[in-house]
Design a protein that fits this description.
Chain A has 233 residues and is an alpha+beta fold. Chain A is built from 6 helices and 9 strands. In chain A, 23% of the residues lie in helices and 20% in strands. In chain A, a hairpin with a 5-residue loop joins β8 and β9. The longest helix of chain B has 22 residues. Chain B is α/β, with parallel strands linked by helices. The chains are: A alpha+beta (233), B alpha/beta (274). At the A-B interface, α1 and β4 of A face α3 and α5 of B.
């Protein structure tokens, strides 16, 4: 539409990971005339931070609309997490708001037990991919394991290093899924900490389904960022 | 006991004193199988490669073009594991100084110190690390120092003077100069920017400089040998194996290509185009 040439990727598993490999290969060959614009919050510094700053409009707008429509902040912000771009965009808008809980949902695929999923935080280990240290789906030799999701945007074996808190958030639970899948792994994010090292520390956080009770007297409200669209209710 | 000690620099300096450039030949471990890769690399060393570079096959080789990607995929599909790489190194290191070229994640996953220890025990010379920058390499640098291993970082035509100095300082063995901006793969013509890059590196260090990317025959090797201490050839070897019908044809192809390239690196010095 704007004159760009779209190049399909035929290497590897032909998912987002392989598209990033090809983009990096093309970029090093054409660095004088090309700018690298990865849509997800992964890759080498400073690109994850750039994506975070460019996508935080999601969170800033959701926050403003919540104040305008509800007269207060939501109780929770929920986002799906693949590479983490929309999640970091939504969460960044609420980072200063201690009362807003942050929940991320990963792609369960056919189920984490099947090996066919994109639940990086749930099933990954610390590793380096695309210039980023984060949790990765990898085998015992550090070879990347291909991710699986019906959502192209979630089909990535790592996740962005700019997410709030430590690379692995606290408080994993699995619960009822909002999708046709029987369940979906989810995490709640602690507030940012000084440490930038991967951490396995976990704290308990209420499950999303218990939020109405935990939010006390008032009706609860959530901001959810399922993909491109953010809804407040 | 560590068998390390067959580091690359003495071999490269001996070549320099003999008035020629050195040939560094690359093939991935486990390509097409672990045993076959041992045979091919030993053939390479016997046919005139001064230094051997063993690739650790990796799922996401972002510095590599389609040829080496295909070889890495084939090696992984054949079940090659990190531990196999040390067996390949041990076999090649009997004949020539042998470095491993690897992306960083497999090293981190194996354990950096454990990797360095096992590489040294196998008689390996050190590591070439294309996606590890010296600024982030503290753990590897200390492990390499502990085990007496070469540390080879990359510089590129786009590298600033500051980065050339930083990378050259951090290297032991030689400095890997990427001849072009791009990925590995044979090219029609040798790089026009590599001579200037090597000159810039020589302004900040007296360590040997190897030039890689794009060389596939003796004529091109001679052109690069005119200004570099070592000519690094990878994709052309991989292609010769991919195109060979069977194992004996692959051995013959690797021997012939090595001989052609070894002849080229001996013809190079003094014949630089003005």
């Amino acid at each position: 539409m704007l004159g760009a040439e779209v190049v399909p990727v035929s290497s590897g598993s032909r998912t987002l990971k392989d598209a990033i490999n090809e983009a990096l290969r093309d970029w090093v060959a054409n660095v004088d005339s090309t700018h690298y614009l990865l849509g997800t919050a992964a890759g080498a510094h400073p690109f994850p931070a750039l994506v975070r700053d460019f996508t935080r409009g999601i969170g800033d707008e959701a926050r403003a609309q919540s104040l305008e429509l509800l007269g207060r902040l939501p109780d929770a912000a929920l986002a799906c997490v693949g590479g983490g771009s929309n999640a970091i965009g939504l969460f960044t808008g609420f980072l200063a708001d201690e009362s807003v809980r942050l929940y991320g949902f990963e792609a369960g695929g056919d189920g984490v037990d099947t090996g066919r999923h994109a639940a990086t935080i749930t099933a990954g280990d610390v590793g380096v991919l695309h210039g980023t240290r984060s949790f990765l789906l990898q085998d015992g030799d550090g070879q990347t394991i291909e991710s699986h999701s019906i959502s192209a945007g979630l089909d990535y074996p790592g996740w962005g290093p700019s997410m709030p808190g430590s690379p692995r958030p606290a408080g994993r639970r699995t619960g009822p899924s909002p999708t046709p899948r029987p369940w979906m792994p989810w995490w709640s994010w602690p507030r940012p900490r000084a440490s930038s090292q991967p951490s396995r520390a976990r704290t308990r956080s209420p499950a999303p389904s218990t939020l109405p009770a935990s939010s006390g007297r008032r009706p609860h409200s959530w901001c959810a960022c399922p993909a491109e669209e953010t809804r407040t209710w | 006991m560590s068998r390390a000690g067959r580091t690359a620099r003495p071999t490269l300096e001996a070549a320099r004193e003999a008035g020629r450039s050195a040939l560094i030949g690359y093939l991935p471990a486990g390509f097409p199988t672990v045993d076959a890769s041992i045979g091919l690399l030993r053939e390479m060393a016997r046919s005139g490669a001064d230094v051997i570079e063993v690739g650790l096959p990796y799922s996401d080789p972002v510095m590599d073009g389609p040829t080496i990607q295909a070889a890495a995929q084939q090696a992984l599909a054949a079940g090659t594991r990190t531990a196999d790489v040390f067996a390949v190194v041990a076999a090649a290191a009997e004949l020539a100084p042998t470095l491993v070229m690897t992306y960083w994640n497999p090293v981190e996953r194996y354990g950096v110190d454990r990797f360095a220890a096992d590489l040294a025990s196998a008689g390996g010379a050190g590591l070439i690390t294309p996606d590890l920058i010296p600024d982030e390499a503290a753990e590897w640098v200390s492990a390499a120092d502990r085990h007496g291993l070469d540390k080879v970082f990359l510089v590129a035509p786009s590298s600033t003077e500051q980065r050339l100095a930083l990378a050259s300082d951090a290297c032991r063995g030689f400095i890997y100069a990427a001849a072009v901006m791009g990925v590995t793969g044979a090219r029609e013509q040798t790089s026009l920017v590599a001579p200037d890059l090597v000159k810039r590196v020589r302004a900040v260090t007296d360590k040997p400089v190897g030039v890689g990317l794009g060389v596939s025959n003796g004529r091109q090797a001679a052109e690069v040998a005119a200004y570099a201490d070592a000519v690094i050839v990878g994709s052309a070897f991989v292609r010769s194996v991919l195109e060979a019908g069977d194992e004996s044809a692959a051995l013959a192809a690797v021997a012939a290509l090595t001989a052609d390239l070894a002849c080229g690196v001996r013809a190079g010095l003094g014949s630089a185009p003005s």
